[in-house]
């Protein structure tokens, strides 16, 4: 098994001390696409001068009263206009124990986690697709560390699927999973 320092880019190694219990035990690498072979996927400090910085922009789909400066590629993908809302541990407990007519999907993530950012994009698309048929929420494991520990979140991203039927057990997935698998769990297992 490769060490984390050998697999992660140099700039991502700074994130490791923040939450050592949440680092996945296995790191899977995806081979680069032949179409994108000329594009660097690592971190680079070259051109970090004034001309190399990105200027903050305003998101086009942001509501007028909630204009948020957004820096593309910053890893801060949480915006007030997204469908999947960030919730606290108390709010998740209320949603799980409360009366629901639709399944509840809880995404445990961290802003420094690359696969979490990829999964967040898929979850946003699924939230649009299942707008009235499922409820998607997310929990930041850095903000709710004790709750994530209690929920046995060991790797990121971790999804919990709660059925509206209180008698059914929750389904847990860990790591980056395809959208089709999430659809299958929502449509057939809950």
Automatic annotation (TrEMBL):
It comes from the Eukaryota. GO terms for cellular component: chloroplast. PROSITE patterns: THIOREDOXIN_1, THIOREDOXIN_2. Keywords: Chloroplast, Disulfide bond, Electron transport, Oxidoreductase, Plastid, Redox-active center, Transit peptide, Transport. It holds the Pfam family Thioredoxin. InterPro entries: CITRX, Thioredoxin-like_sf, Thioredoxin_CS, Thioredoxin_domain. Its main location: plastid. It is found in: Plastid, Chloroplast. SUPFAM superfamilies: Thioredoxin-like. One of its GO terms (molecular function) is oxidoreductase activity. CDD domains: TRX_family. Residues 73-190 form the Thioredoxin domain. PANTHER family: THIOREDOXIN-LIKE PROTEIN CITRX, CHLOROPLASTIC. Belongs to the thioredoxin family. Plant CITRX-type subfamily. This is Thioredoxin-like protein CITRX, chloroplastic.
